[in-house]
Structure formats: structure tokens, C-alpha cells
Amino acid sequence: MTLSLETLRREGDEFHQAISRELYLSGSGQKKTAELQAIYARFANVLSDEALDMVRELFRDSPADSEEHRSARILLEWQADARVSRELAELDEREIAWESSAIARVDDGRGIQYQQIAIEIANASDRDERLRLEKARATLVAKELAPLRQERFQREKDIVEGLDIAGSYNDTFTALSGVNLPSLVDECKAFLRDTQAMWDDVFAEVVRRDLDIDPREATRADALALMRAPAFDPYFPSKPMEEEVRRQVTDMGADATAKGRVIFDTGEREGKSSRAFCAPVRVPQEVYLVLRPHGGQSDYRTFLHELGHALHFANTRADYPFEYRWLGDNSITESYAMLFDHMLHLPGWLARYTELGAPRIPGFMRAAGFEELQFLRRYAAKLIYEHQLYGGDHSWESLPDVYVETLSAATSFRYDSADAFVDVDPRYYAARYLRAWQLQAVIGEALVERFDEDWFRNPRAGPYILDTLFAEGQRELAHELAERVASRPLSFAPLVRATESMLVSA
Ligand SMILES: [Zn+2]
After folding, report:
1. pLDDT, tens digit (0-9, with 9 covering 90-100), for 27-54
2. Å from CA of 103 to ligand 1 middle
3. Of 23, 29, 127, 473, whose CA is between 20 and 30 Å from 70?
4. Of 3.60.150.10, 1.20.1050.40, 1.10.20.10, 1.10.1370.30, which CATH number belongs to 186-237+329-503?
């Protein structure tokens, strides 16, 4: 039987619906485990060699600027990713099993569950205790998790390079994603240089004040404790969160449920994930936003982020082909999620929909600016490092030193070599995040130009966001979208401007 493009689209859609429904049911506590292997088996056609051959041929034979080529690129990237996922499924399962059973041994004899230890490190207010816990964690990771992960990346590289799309892993990524990886790496290096002085200033001040240590001694464990700071949490209460955010979406002239297509799953249920997540079971008709409100700044951020994803999927054009509704450049959906979670950086939004109150807003903004710059610099460094990890110019043995040097220099927190293969987002998800960050800032500036500073409560802004942005699914690449809506290229410049203005606000 010859597979047609139409059949592949139809079965691909059904396959994604089945996977997403399974993840929704298990994540929301309605099923004990997600049984994904059975779904892979049922849709073997979708990930067959025949399917890969067909889309690879379409990709090669279609004119570079055509809609067919765009579709074929997205479908080929999907085929490549899905193959990697399927072939690494067993390794991933081994890793998950390890994570749920591993115990870190502290010097004084205590045993702490691996899954618990990062939280304990972040919560340890006594620094000696924090460093003891971190040493136990790093020792365990270096011995048991790092070798598993190193094997995983080696195999991923082999699988991708065997797909016969481009010579190397990095060239294959650039060809399939449409992201110019070498130039993004250069932008990251320039961003780190351009924000160095601003970072040095705020870093020394915050570390001395909040941790009371010599900034030169700060480690990544200290960073975890610093970011955990609960000082503002009382002003982000759990009870009114959902209602206030829905009110804001209504003020913006949109519907937080997208006429019922977004289903809020907010009830308490045993086995339900404590972290909010979005499961697009049918795009755009049936999108779940699973939530278990517990309050605090990070809960608001996660809820807003997942709501951005949910409204994006639920407002995608129903008549678009499978690949534009389900697949494509994830920088797009991540930028919409970030557009929503970055409302926490708008003083007007904070004043109106939280209990922070005007006098606390400047202090909050400066703290948020510190956090934002720390995460941006960390992600820029991650991408620079991951480019070397996948590039193959360094031996596996020499990568931990490269990791420590790159991440420590960018963040000013000392990183541990144990994490060189653990603190890595497979398949360059860091590139998606960085471009999403850039796009979010471009869209944010464009919304201010069109609808003023308080665009988030301008009844014309919501319909514009839904019709101009969300409806397009992920048909476009992030830089194409920036050109279309703001006539400007994607860059770090608007992010630097936004961060600067947050840091001077106290
Ligand atoms: Zn996201």
C-alpha cells in the first residue's frame, strides 16, 4: 500500500490526539500511568519508513519558497523527532525509573530522595546545609545519572545523523527547524557581552543583600535558594487567581474559555499533577488546562503561561492542515505562553489583578528584572554549550569542563561538572525558548504601539491577538511572524530594553 499525504495527515492527527488524551488523563489523575507504547504500536503506519521516505522526498523535490516545502519541512522535522522519541523511549523510561527511586547520601548519613533534593536545597536557609545537600546531589548524579544521559545524547546524535537529511546533527537541526543555529549562537555571545556590566552590578548587590555571602563564592545551589525567595508570595493568593486572570482576559475583549473549547480542570483529584499544564487533545476543539492552585508568584506565572498555550491551540484555524495546527516552530506557542506570563512584568497588570499594591511594585519589578536577566543569561549560555555538545568537536570527556566554564561565566554562579549531560534540553529546546523570548518582546512592544501601555485591558487587543496571531497556529517561523506583525527582525534588543527598565525601577 502506498501512503498518501492525506492519509498521513489524518492518521498523524489521530495519533497526536491519542497521545495527548493519554497524557491529559494520566497527568490529571484520571489514569494511573500513560500507556504510550500501545499508541505507538497502533499508529505504526505514521512512523513507518514509508512515511519518512515520502516526506523526505517532498522536502527535497518542492521549490524552496513554496507552501509545499513549508509543509514538508514541518512534517519531516516531526518524523525525525518522533523517531528519536520512539527509539529512545526505553532509555527515557530507565531514566524516569531511576529518578523515582534514587537516594542521595549526605555526609552525615542521611538519605534523601533524588526527586526531593532540589526543593530541599532551594529551601535550605542555612548555607552549610545547602552546600552539604548539593554535594550529595552532585555525587549521585555524576555516578549514576550522567552516564545514562551521555549515552542518550550519543544515540540521539547517531539516529539524527543517520536520517540522511544533512551531514551533521547541527546542520540537520538548522535544515529542519528553519532556525539559523550558528547565527543564534553568535547573538547569544553578543547578548552576554552587552549585558555583562548590567549583570555584574545587580548580581553583586542581590547576592550580598539576600544571601549575605561574598559574590565570588556563590554557587548554583545558592541561585536555587535565591530564586525561591517567597517575599512577594502573600500578594499572589491562590483563591482569586483563576477569577482575576479570567477577568483580565475578558477586559481584553477575549474569552478565557474560547467559547468552551478550553476546559478548566481545577478540581482536587488524587494523583493529579501539582504543576499546571495544557493538553490540546483536539486542536482547536478540545483543549484542557489542568490546574491545582496553590498560590504564590510562580503559580501565577505557570497558570498564565499554560493559559497562553491553551488559548493559542483553541483559537487556531480549524481549516488548517494537521501540520500547522499540531506541529511547526514551538518558538511560536512558547512566545504566546511567555506573552501571558510576562504580564507579571507589567506594573499596571500587577496593580489591577494582584494584591501587590502600588508601594511594593518597584521592588517587585527590580527582583523580577534580576530573575529575568539571570534566566536569559543562563539560557544563552546553555545554547552556546549545547551547540558544542551536539557539534562533536569536543570529546565527551572534555565537555564537563566546557559546561562549567560557560555556565559559570554567564551566570556568575559556580556550576558543577556533574550536570554537564543532565542540565541539557534535548533537541535544542533552549533555541525555541530563546527565540520565543525574543518574539514575546517584539509582540509586547507592538501591542504597546497599537493599544498603549495597558493593552492587556484594551477590548480591541484580545480580538487582534486571536485573529492576527493565534489563528495562524504554528504555520510560520518565529522570525517570519516578527516581520509580519512588527516589521522588525527577531533580536535580543527589545529584551535588553525591557530588562533595563525593570532594573532601574526601584
Ligand atoms: Zn511552555
Report:
1. 999 998 888 888 999 999 999 999 999 9
2. 30
3. 23
4. 1.10.1370.30
